[in-house]
């Protein structure tokens, strides 16, 4: 591969670049899963998995479609909002298979206004089929869990705080709005 200055990348640099591209591709897949679950975007969620993937998560063992339905029902019944946050990410790839370990924290605002937090790791096998890297096997290892005290959401009482859009669990969420614009008036809070 030729660089913009006309020199060639070394073999080591090319290998590193390919590894970086693969790592980013796999991480993007993880992000589709988390955003798909938090926004109840079924198509986005399912795009992270091969359709015949097998997923083990707590009491659940089944397919991506079954996981989406089960988890969506669980979250709709118990929570007002969820955030699946990705942390450390390790990749071991060979050919058309890659194994990853992704640390996560899960945070939820429960319907009773308590806050639930949990942490663990997604242990995944990705496979490349027809050029598409997706999860083919997942083990969700839940390592800890607890409840946090409930506090009011800061600034929730401002009359225009939601004028730009609301946090929603569907495609009406502000993150889907295009183009993103500001509808709030200019204001700088004083002490």
From TrEMBL:
Start and end residues of each SnoaL-like domain: 26-138
Pfam families: SnoaL_4
Source species, domain of life: Bacteria
UniProt cross-references to Gene3D superfamilies, sorted A to Z: 3.10.450.50
Protein known as: Nuclear transport factor 2 family protein
Annotated source species: Halioxenophilus aromaticivorans
Top-level taxonomy: Bacteria, Pseudomonadati, Pseudomonadota, Gammaproteobacteria, Alteromonadales
């Amino acid at each position: 591969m030729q660089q913009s200055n006309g020199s060639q990348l070394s073999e080591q640099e090319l290998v590193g670049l390919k590894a970086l591209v693969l790592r980013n591709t796999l991480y993007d897949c993880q992000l589709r899963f988390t955003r798909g679950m938090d926004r109840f975007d079924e198509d986005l969620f399912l795009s992270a998995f091969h359709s015949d993937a097998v997923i083990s998560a707590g009491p659940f063992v089944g397919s991506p479609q079954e996981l989406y339905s089960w988890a969506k029902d669980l979250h709709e019944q118990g929570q007002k909002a969820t955030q699946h946050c990705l942390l450390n990410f390790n990749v071991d790839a060979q050919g058309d298979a890659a194994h990853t370990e992704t640390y996560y924290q899960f945070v939820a605002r429960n319907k009773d206004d308590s806050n639930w937090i949990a942490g663990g790791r997604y242990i995944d096998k990705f496979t490349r089929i027809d050029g598409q890297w997706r999860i083919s096997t997942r083990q969700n290892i839940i390592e800890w869990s607890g409840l946090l005290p409930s506090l009011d959401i800061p600034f929730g009482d401002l009359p225009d705080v939601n004028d730009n859009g609301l946090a929603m669990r569907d495609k009406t969420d502000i993150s889907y709005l295009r183009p993103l614009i500001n509808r709030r008036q200019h204001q700088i809070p004083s002490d």
